[in-house]
Amino acid sequence: MNEKPNYLKISARDMEAEFLRILIKHGFTSDNAKTCARIFTENSIDGVYTHGVNRFPRFVKYVAEGHVRQNAEPVLKHAAGAVEQWDGQLGAGPLNALKCTQRAMELASASGIGCVALANTNHWMRGGTYGREAAKNGFVFIGWTNTIANMPAWGAIDSKLGNNPLVIGMPYKDEPVVLDMAMSQYSYGALELYEMKKEKLPVPGGYDSSGNLTQDAITIRESKRILPIGYWKGAGLSLLLDILAAVLSGGLSTAEISRSKDEISLSQVFIAIDLSKLQNFKSIEVTLQQIIDDYHQSVPARENGKIVFPGERVVLTRNENLKNGIPVLEEVWNRIQAL
């Protein structure tokens, strides 16, 4: 049996300070470095290590290679009422995404709904960051991004689709309901994590080179045949998300992004809806609570199982990691400290 990897427990404060040091060293302004360091740390605190601490070395590599322009600011290209098209100028994905989320909320505050479509940007890391940001401010959020081609169409063996993550956020008490999901059963970041942990996937996540479903992350990464969620349905949804991202932003499609070996110049969409503008605003809280209460009454398939809504488990993980430190693979933390 393969030996299990070693984990360290890093406090949120120490992690954020290390990220900040590295980002400033690599040319970020103090404000931009602080925002990026905070986002990477919060993703890690919430247990999204694949787009937090584990992803940080690759982010810095893209900065060093010039794919991410540290302090580039997104610029408005075109406005038509509550719909705007922006150019991210290859700036840092998290910074661009946060600014476009804020702009979508501004438009929604004025018009009830706001849509910001962003071209020429970079990986936004955890999409749920922006769904949570909007929902915590009282807005419904719908957003998505395209990616480099990394998933086969249903019935194909070569990758023509991205696994194009979709995010939907809804305000709810102190912790919003936030769905953040790729169009593949597992993201490539998740496959990398299971590979580093030397663990099998809980359910099949793709195919081996012979076309057999497998729970082996290494085999799936080698075959490059990840499994779409819902089989043909996930593949179809991925295609439409790519089409809409490219068309609404005037940016690149997955096919065009994939002409480069690096995942850069992505297209993204950020939609915010101001719930306070709705006629039924005063009753929304009661309606939502009734839905959640009924949902929680589901009978678990396993003894002592608990049915949770999207994002509900995050609170437990956050509290655990803030109290005891964030679990980080030793090899990952050593890599970060050497940056």
Question: Which percent range describes the beta-strand content?
Answer: 15-25%
The residue fraction in helices comes out at 40-55%
Counted by DSSP, the helix tally is 12
- Quaternary state reads single chain
Which fold name is given in CATH as the topology of the largest domain? Ribosomal Protein S8, Chain: A, domain 1
For the largest sheet, list the strands in their spatial order. 2-3-4-12-5-8-9
Kindly state the mean pLDDT as a whole number?
96
Characterize the main sheet.
7 strands, mixed
Order of helices and strands: EHHHEEHEHEEEEEHEEHHHEHHEH
Q: How many beta-strand runs? A: 13
CATH architecture of the largest domain: 2-Layer Sandwich
CATH class call of the largest domain? Alpha Beta
If you compute it from the alpha carbons, what radius of gyration comes out, rounded to the nearest whole angstrom? 20 Å
Unreliable stretches covering 5 or more consecutive residues:
none
Distance between the termini: 32 Å
Instruction: Give the count of structural domains.
Output: 3
Tell me, briefly, the overall form. globular
Backbone structural class:
alpha+beta
Organism: Chryseosolibacter indicus
Pfam families: Ldh_2
GO molecular function: 3-dehydro-L-gulonate 2-dehydrogenase activity
Protein name: 3-dehydro-L-gulonate 2-dehydrogenase
Structural overview:
This protein is 42% helix and 19% strand. It has 12 helices and 13 strands. A 7-stranded mixed β-sheet has the order 2-3-4-12-5-8-9, with helices on both faces. The chain has a two-stranded antiparallel ribbon with strand order 1-13. A two-stranded antiparallel ribbon has the order 6-7. Strand 6 and strand 7 form a beta hairpin. The chain has helices at residues 12-25, 30-45, 56-64, 93-111, 128-136, 188-197, 217-223, 232-249, 254-257, 281-296, 312-324, 330-337; strands spanning 7-10, 75-80, 83-87, 113-121, 139-145, 151-152, 159-161, 166-170, 177-181, 206-207, 213-214, 266-274, 326-329.
